[in-house]
Specification:
Length: 409
């Protein structure tokens, strides 16, 4: 509601994860830098819980064609192609996903096609696990063929390799990354994680909750009531313990929304663990500190909201008054009704600082609105609701981000 769907392509969940999780995967090697020897350019560092390589990428395009897993390509589609059927997800599935980083942007996308050159080149795996065992880990066979004449400059089907590409990117993800032409990107292969048995032990009382690895779909499926929990039948999820208390203290449903996951443990790319629960408007996390006391916080979901660039531009300082407040921390202001809403329902602790100015938009069904983004919220003012007491609402930011990822209907 009030997202401004007419504003264009929304960013994918990968961008959201970069801001929300505040964690980057460990780079395990630099694969084939431009104009360098394919074998000399690879440097090894110790791995932890995922692998990242620098790979040359093309835009897939081909709207209307069918991918290797049976998906019919749509305009602004979000998926990638990798050159091995071994990591092909099921039709519209997310079993295998990658995170792509480019010029400060990031996106996560499932593997729905095979290409661009080979069908059996799992270049993200160690050499001893590859058909093309003479190439360092992280270097696609096509890159070695193109740069060094490996395999006579041919791919596995005998075609002359005319680019070093190791990944094709669907149009929507390509544009979300801000790409305009083929280029080098950093790709993290999110399935390269250890088994659960390799992870650190959990604190007492948290052994039986679901587990998700960094960048994977959270456990969104509804469940039934649990003993000792507060159950929300509207969404089919439960909340308990310090998360429930923190949620209530920050305004409960009105400010943070209803739960859309159970509490689960999320394994970060550096091997650390956080306990997290997603709500319609917020993501709350609990990190057990060493002294045993609770450490609770909410993620900065506002930084992943789609916003006109002009609204993000900082403004010059001014002296605050009753109706206008200036925040030097973010170089943005808070005014009139939004200022009153912010101050009356939680302020800085609940919503964070403003990170945009107010901006206007129109929903897909023609409703005009005015919105402003905060570090942890989006406020919306609806002129057609003036006088009803419901003219200011809070956007369902987390629900929208889950839908953009294809993780939620």
């Amino acid at each position: 509601m009030g997202r401004g769907k007419s504003a264009g392509n929304a960013r994918r969940i990968g961008a959201m994860l970069v801001f929300l999780l505040a964690a980057l995967p460990l780079t395990t090697g630099a694969a084939l830098a431009e104009n360098q020897d394919a074998t000399a350019s690879y440097a090894t560092t110790p791995t932890t819980y995922s692998v990242t390589f620098r790979v040359f990428a093309h835009r897939e395009g081909l709207v209307g064609h069918t991918t290797a897993n049976g998906h019919v390509i749509q305009e602004n589609d979000h998926f990638v192609a990798l050159p091995c059927r071994c990591v092909l997800s099921s039709k519209d599935g997310h079993e295998f996903e990658v995170k792509i980083e480019y010029n400060g942007r990031a996106a996560i996308a499932p593997v729905w096609d095979v290409g661009p050159w080979n069908i059996d080149d799992n270049y993200w795996d160690p050499p001893e696990q590859r058909k093309w065992s003479g190439i360092p880990q992280g270097v696609p066979e096509a890159a070695a063929a193109f740069t060094n004449g490996y395999n006579g400059g041919l791919d596995g089907s005998g075609r002359e390799v005319r680019s070093p590409a190791g990944i094709d990117i669907g149009d929507g993800t390509f544009y979300d990354l801000g790409m305009t032409s083929s280029d080098w990107v950093n790709v993290t292969f999110l399935w390269t994680h250890p088994s659960i048995e390799q992870l650190p032990p959990l604190p007492a009382g948290y052994e039986d909750i679901p587990t998700s690895f960094f960048g994977q779909r959270p456990p969104l499926d509804p469940v039934g009531p649990k003993t000792g929990y507060t159950y929300f039948p509207e969404t089919g999820h439960n909340v308990t313990g310090p998360i429930l208390e923190y949620w209530s203290n920050l305004g409960g449903w009105r400010n943070l929304g209803l739960p859309i996951t159970e509490l689960f443990r999320e394994i970060q790319s550096d091997g650390s663990i956080r306990f997290v629960q997603y709500f319609e408007r917020s993501i709350l996390q609990y990190i057990p500190p060493e002294d045993g006391g609770p450490a609770l916080s909410s993620d900065l979901v506002g930084y992943s909201a789609t916003v006109p660039p002009s609204a993000r531009a900082p403004i010059g300082p001014f002296e605050s008054s009753n109706d206008h407040w200036y925040f030097p921390q973010t170089q943005h202001s808070l005014n009139y009704g939004f200022k009153q809403e912010w101050a009356s329902h939680g302020g800085l602790a609940t919503f964070g600082y403003p990170i945009t100015e107010e901006f206007s938009g129109v929903t897909s069904d023609g409703r005009p609105y005015v919105a402003q983004i905060f570090e942890r919220a989006r406020f919306e003012w609806w002129p057609d609701k003036v006088g009803t007491g419901e003219e200011i609402t809070h956007g369902l930011l987390v629900v929208e981000l889950m839908r953009e990822a294809g993780w939620m209907k």
